[in-house]
Design brief:
By secondary structure, the chain is mainly alpha-helical. The chain has seven helices and no strands. The longest helix has 34 residues. 0% of the residues are buried.
Length: 173
Amino acid sequence: MTESMVRTEAAPAILEPSAPVPRSGPRRPRRAPARTALNLLAVAFGLIWLFPVYWMVNTAFLTSSQITSRTPTWFPWAGTGDHFARVLGDDKFWSALRMSTTLALIVVAGALIFGVVAAFALSRFRFRGRNSFIVAVLIIQMIPAEALFISQYRMLDGWGLLNSVIGLSVLYL
């Protein structure tokens, strides 16, 4: 064998026991007590925010006598599903659910179509008044919906769309 054919391997580096082991990532800064206090405050606000949801679900499983009792029942150990059975067995519930689903599908489809076409036009085409149009859209969105109730009612009444899914869809769009 020639000397070029012999492979020599370098000896592995030997770490002394007193040498510190290098860390593999950036150091995590220590949390300040103020940051921990803010996190605990955020958790407390979150629990306060979730309490009405808990109370609604809790009340749904209580019996009628427990709901009208003066002492609150915090956990419905002997809960009942009678309220759910009564609602799900009512035809009015299914009719309202069908109407809400139809309305949501119409509004989502219309908003997607109008939004995609408008976004494409505003992003691709340069035309006079483009910036004014964008500002006008933003200003119109700042108007509270309550300020438009009377004009929207009169508009729908004039079109003959009061109390209809199409009329409500037009308002949401």
